[in-house]
Amino acid sequence: TVSLFILPACRDSLTVKVEVCKGEPSVVLPCQYSQKLEEIVTVKWSSFDLDPNTVHQRQEADDLRGQNEIFKGRTSMAPLALDSGDFSLTLSEPQVSDSGVYICSLRHETEEIMVSDVQLIVTVYRVEVDSGEESVLLPFKTAVCLPGKSKVTWRTHDSKVVHINSLNFQHQQHRQFKDRTEMKKPGKSRDFSLILKKPTDKDTGTYICTVCDYWSENISTKKQVLLNVK
């Protein structure tokens, strides 16, 4: 039987709230441990809303055999985490469904000590604009390393094509957005933001930008933006 002990500190003082927008490349769940580790222990990140509840586990190396499938390939810790006491977890491609409380704990034999807990809130980026404005910007900048040539596609949640970064995309563009969209050339800035001209209440909804390799169409990054035209 594994027992759980909370370090001597106020419960509220342990809780950290982290907010991130869906579409960001990653988010860091912080956890610092100041005491020196005298024995070999296991650092475990858990979410007790899930079954199995293991998010990530590290002893001398990562041990992901019991990891919940929804985190497969999306979690990492610093290589020298146990030496430095920095047990922070990086979660890539955060989803709204990832929202919840994450526990960072130390395990040794039958004891488990909670170091900290993190409340993660993943939201959809929101933009509000008044109907009648000249234009509205749906922002998307990324730090993700991209292939040499990328295809950028903006769509609505129901798959209407809003804009594609090619010269002859007009035949694919939905008539609702004809002559009303514009993108800068991303270049080195990796700015895929979309300008939507003359927004109306009919434009209210979720917009999804997908960036993929031009040739293979493997997705490099994506972002959702919720537009509300008042």
From TrEMBL:
It is a single-pass type I membrane protein. Residues 8-116 form the Ig-like domain. Pfam families: V-set (PF07686). One of its GO terms (biological process) is negative regulation of T cell proliferation. The keyword Transferase does not apply. Keywords: Cell membrane, Disulfide bond, Glycoprotein, Immunoglobulin domain, Membrane, Receptor, Signal, Transmembrane, Transmembrane helix. GO terms for cellular component: external side of plasma membrane. It is found in: Cell membrane. This is Ig-like domain-containing protein. It comes from Poecilia formosa (Amazon molly).
